[in-house]
């Protein structure tokens, strides 16, 4: 670290942020994300009637039913598409897909940490052929390529580690019997999507849906359900009961999960989905995240010290904005002072190893808080110059 960088970092750490400048809510994390006060109030109101009760009885099953019905409305599901949920997060669904959706070989787009992890999962699966990996450097956007020898295409709608958003569209030339599996963990509920372009659009609750983890949800096409049932009937294929997609489908149709879920997660998610629908649904959420992420991109264009990590404007995420900080400024000094003042979780993804800010703009993050965050960052940069 240069002497000038060290001196400026010390100056930044010694700065104070006036209380009146701070955001009303300082949580900008890419997951877990901020939970609205109204959700917590709803959780408190059912503490004795739902929490600590059987997940196979009506009070809890009603929350599962609310989630499934809400997602059907939010995503305008076509005939035959089903909302399925199971225990574990998106990481668990990678195992579910490896066992119950990929027949022999997949093509994986790899553009960051999480897309790499799913590719590694399929590579390690002893019953599958090694996937074809179409890779891009972190911050860049790869494109799927139709191949005859794959039966599934897999990529993230949004790569949370880098802030790259990938179009959700069936590869040109792909056959109808080839499934499209989209990891929508940090995009679902925050960006528009044409569900008919996917066969499994899967995600977890702790991002746009402002809940806790411990659950995976997937919107499955009729083709995906048929594939899952056919593979489950293959007696030569071992599928652990916890990773059985057909079991998850059967239980979801009864508004329940295979094992006991985190009931608080269900309550928080049901409340968030219904709040989003009241605001105007996915159209509203998409507009809000485009506005708030656009505010951050516009700010970066005004500051010589800040550069968008994703150089292609068309590939930039509307829910996770990654901004490189000039090498003469220690980004950890900025995030340290912010955290001391209650503005949290804007650090970069740890394994990316960049001098960077990573700021989430999920639907619960309002324009006024993003404007306040920008003003605070301006204050720290200007006062330390």
Please describe what this structure looks like.
This protein folds into two domains: 3-36 and 281-383, Aspartate Aminotransferase, domain 1, CATH 3.90.1150.10; 49-278, Aspartate Aminotransferase, domain 2 (3-Layer(aba) Sandwich), CATH 3.40.640. The protein is globular. 38% of the residues lie in helices and 14% in strands. The model has no long low-confidence stretch (mean pLDDT 97). It is built from eleven helices and twelve strands. Helix 1 (3-13) packs across helix 11. The strands form three sheets. It has a seven-stranded mixed sheet, sandwiched between helices. The chain has a three-stranded antiparallel sheet with strand order 10-11-12. Helix 5 links the parallel strand 2 and strand 3. It has helices at residues 3-13, 37-45, 58-74, 90-100, 113-124, 222-232, 245-252, 263-279, 281-302, 331-340, 367-384, and strands spanning 82-87, 106-110, 132-135, 152-156, 158-159, 164-165, 179-183, 200-203, 215-220, 306-308, 320-325, 356-360. With 385 residues, the protein is α/β, with parallel strands linked by helices. Residues 1-11 have a biased composition (Basic and acidic residues). Residues 1-28 are annotated as: Disordered.
């Amino acid at each position: 670290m240069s002497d000038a960088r060290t001196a400026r970092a010390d100056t930044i750490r010694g700065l104070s942020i006036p209380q009146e400048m701070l955001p009303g809510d300082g949580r900008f994390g890419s997951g877990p994300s901020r939970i609205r006060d109204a959700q917590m109030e709803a959780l408190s109101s059912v503490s004795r009637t739902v929490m600590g009760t059987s997940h196979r009885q009506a009070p809890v099953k009603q929350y599962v039913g609310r989630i499934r019905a809400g997602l059907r409305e939010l995503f305008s599901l076509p005939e035959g598409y089903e909302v399925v949920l199971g225990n574990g997060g998106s990481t668990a669904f990678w195992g579910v897909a490896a066992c119950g959706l990929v027949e022999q070989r997949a093509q994986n787009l790899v553009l960051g940490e999480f897309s790499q992890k799913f590719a590694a999962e399929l590579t390690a699966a002893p019953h599958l052929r090694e996937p074809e990996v179409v890779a891009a450097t972190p911050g860049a956007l790869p494109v799927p390529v139709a191949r005859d020898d794959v039966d599934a295409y897999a990529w993230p709608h949004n790569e949370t580690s880098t802030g790259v958003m990938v179009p959700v569209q069936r590869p040109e030339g792909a056959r109808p019997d080839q499934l499209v599996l989209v990891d929508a963990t940090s995009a679902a509920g925050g960006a528009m999507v044409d569900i008919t372009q996917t066969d499994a659009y899967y995600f977890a609750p702790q991002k746009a849906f402002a809940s806790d983890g411990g659950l995976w949800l997937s919107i499955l096409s009729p083709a995906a359900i048929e594939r899952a049932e056919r593979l489950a009937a293959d007696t030569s294929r071992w599928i652990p009961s916890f990773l059985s997609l057909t079991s998850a489908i059967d239980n979801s149709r009864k508004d329940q999960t295979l094992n006991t879920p985190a009931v608080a997660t269900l309550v928080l998610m049901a409340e968030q989905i219904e709040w989003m629908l009241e605001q105007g649904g996915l159209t509203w959420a998409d507009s809000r995240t485009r506005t708030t992420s656009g505010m951050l991109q516009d700010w970066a264009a005004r500051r010589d010290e800040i550069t968008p990590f994703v150089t292609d404007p068309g590939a930039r995420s509307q829910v996770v904005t990654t901004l490189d900080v000039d090498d003469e400024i220690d980004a950890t000094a900025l995030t340290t002072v912010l955290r001391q003042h209650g503005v949290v979780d804007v650090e970069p993804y740890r394994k990316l190893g960049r001098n960077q800010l990573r700021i989430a703009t999920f639907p619960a993050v309002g324009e006024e808080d993003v404007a306040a965050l920008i003003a605070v960052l301006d204050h720290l940069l200007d006062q330390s110059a």
